[in-house]
Amino acid sequence: MPLFSGTRLGPYEVGAQIGAGGMGEVYRATDTNLKRQVAIKVLPASVADDAERLARFQREAEVLAALNHPNIAAIYGLEKADRTIALVIELVEGPTLSDRIAQGAIPLDEALYTARQIAEALETAHEQGIIHRDLKPANIKVRPDGTVKVLDFGLAAVAQGASAIPADATNSPTLTLAATRAGVILGTAGYMSPEQAAGKPVDKRADIWSFGVVLFEMLSGTRLFDGESVSHTLADVQRGEIDFNRLPGETPQPIRAVVQRCLDRDVKARLRDIGEARVALQRYLVDPAGARAASAAHAAPARRPMLTAVALGVAAIAMAAAASLAWVHFRERPPVTAPVRFEMPAPAGAPFLNTGVLSPDGRSVAFEAPGPDGRPILWVRSLDVLEARPLAGTEGLSPGPIWSPDSRFLAFGVNGFPGRLKKVAVTGGPPQTLCEYPGGFREGAWSSGGVILFGAATAGVMRVPDSGGPATPVTRIDASRHEIQHAGPTWLPDGRRFLYHRASRVAENNGVYIGSIEATPESQSTTRLLATDSDPVHVPASDGSGDGFILFLRQNALLAQPFDGAQIRGEPIPVSENVGTLGSYGWFSASPSGALAFRAGITGGAKADLVWFDRKGQRLGQLGPSQDLGTNVQLSPDGKRVVIIRGVLAELSGALGNMQGARIWTAELSRAIFSRLTTGQGIEGSPAISPDGHVAFTSALEGVGDLYWTRADGTGTPEPLLANSPTLKHPNGFSPDGKFLIYDDHTTQRQDLWVLPIAATPDGERKPIPFVVTQADETFGQFSPDGHWIAYSSDESGRREVYVQGFAPDRVPAAAGGKWQMSTAGGDKPRWSRNGKELYYIAPDRKLMAVPVTLGLPFQPGVAVPLFETTATGFFPYAVSPDGRFLISMPAAGEAPTSSPLTIVLNWQAGLKR
Fold first, then answer.
1. Is residue 134 among the annotated active site residues?
2. Which one of 134, 287, 466, 745 is the catalytic residue?
3. Interatomic CA distance for residues 445 and 434, integer angstroms
4. Are 86 and 99 members of one domain?
5. Looking at the structure, do residues 404 and 544 belong to the same domain, yes or no?
6. For the chain, what is the domain count?
7. What is the Cα–Cα distance from 696 to 734, expressed in whole angstroms?
8. Domain membership of residue 675 as a residue range
9. Does 162 share its domain with 260?
10. Of 693, 590, 666, 638, nearest to 908 (Cα)?
11. What is the distance between the alpha carbons of residues 53 and 59, in angstroms, rounded to a whole number?
12. 63, pLDDT greater than 70
């Protein structure tokens, strides 16, 4: 029966209705116990008093409770109150697959990844003896990250008269027919199997038929059965000819075969198990060429004995190659007719931080992993040995090392202000500084002509001779196109042109472009070659034809786009799925020798908990539900409110490059119910709470990163504090009287600390005051409780340490006399205790440290002591309450990131159809 906003069903507080139809009415609700959003589904009023329907509702809920699969919307419980019985299920955000198909045919790779997830969900259900019987695009949701959720397993149907059935029969409600046993679900006209349409008993093969219809519609972008009425549609389902020529011409034969087997009207000839469809899709996604070959072999039975022998021979070669890789791949170099795949684990105690970058000769791989002090360090491993070697002197490098063309040297960036590009011999030795650069390092490439290209976050693509010298810009970030950064240059064979990624807040400007070192930064082409969010890698064709491929990511799928050196040709070919990323930096690389390396995305780490700790490290409880990468934890001065960032946020990058979905959320501690602070669509970051209840934050609506503020309770409209900014700014914190805001400013050369007076001048402007402006990187400024001191971190010594310096607002710069180094072996992210007696920071070994202090003149610091070790995650991952507790963002239970192995594929291009 209908529910109303504010109604309570046990611990669930009902919100707005979000769906209605023959299957029931659906409402958004809040689980007040676990502080999470859920969906509440109740039977329609027309059958709410039907005893049999109520019994079925109960029975189906009990069966569905046994299902546990990431592609099936989870069921949390069955709630009863008065005359209402409600199903409590996972709230799945995102469009339905029906919405997606309405936009047209889905690209092959996207359609197959979606279909594979649907098949996995059905396979799990069928193994539990559950048949969906109403599978259709409207019952499938696709989350923003591409995850599929199948809804409405086994829910009771609604009996409706003919007059209630809409003309759109392919999207009609679930039907039940009086001619069948009462309550048997038939499904939706356009998606039910022929035996369902005839009122016959059904088994799991009815779901397989529906799966075939859904896959057909994803590929074609049109409805398979679209009669004028339900009766016409049912007749077409039972007898109408299925025109498989309506599938796109480029649909591979193995996929056509899956669709045809699913849509065989002879239930005995139909695909018998959805797992067979899942395996076929998986094989094609992982190895398109092999799937085509297998399909061709199946279609030519007279040649099977010979093909089988060849296949066995290839398998033997692959096994021998895996067992004796050094001999097969590096010594004799025999022709290989099939890819050879193997995995390389990370060194013990040093998990991969990103991916492995293959050397041009394909014999070695370089990667980033923690060194002895926990800082990233460069490691190298030859593929014909088992041990990796760390390269001393590369501590603190940025992702994306660059190999020299002869595979003897590696160049790498060390971010700072300024950053430094260095090179080191693979055999070891002291690194040589090649140049300085502004902003953050964004991957690069080394030409045979001795030119290194690399991306710099605030300056575009830059070039430098491999012998060293000043770095000069090759491209320039275009603010008029809302560009954020240029990254990931990769050389084309002529040694003059290169591919690179332009990141923009405008979707149609975001993608891969062709640049030339002979053009000026202003005259580079602004014609997009390829739409993607990842940096490209160009690989020449293994057959020496002069053509090649652009490797790139789309929804974490690694694709190979045929490319003739001037324009793309045909459709991208799937190479692998679930490849990880760090911003636009995809976790894959390839060598001209025919080797490919990639890593899967981080397992876990997708959720974070806000957890209270005492100073001994004892866990005191959790605040609210697990968040999507809850980061930048801020408590109000009175300790009654918390604000965090939820969503993907790469604030440390020096650009707004990987911040999709980053939003500020807030909650009162007494209720712990989080809500969006603003309703805008722009990217938000780095909140700071003022004493009078305002939240200052970064926004990328107009400038690169302007400063705004709004009421902490969400009332009112955000107002600019410092607008039309040419550089990225991060609020750090307010002074205790609320008169000043300290922020860090990412200038073209460094990151500095500035103080913004909140009171505007008579002309309506706020004029920033420099606090610490040096050649080093200063950030995380925090006012002391008495307002006379500012703690911050800086890398002026060569590594990040925490300092305290006096604040004098009447001076320019505002730094007063006296400066103390508070950390002794590295430190970052300082916070003051609310009583001003301690200063806290995080050490490189993840320990939370405390330094006793005496405020006043003179300032008197004590000796830092460790409190406890923390797995804090995020940009500014902890806050201190007035009563001395610590609120820390850390990986949710069971979500701690783990390091996947590096997958290496030799001869990966074999069989790819271009």
1. yes
2. 134
3. 14
4. no
5. yes
6. 4
7. 9
8. 624-835+849-870
9. yes
10. 590
11. 10
12. no
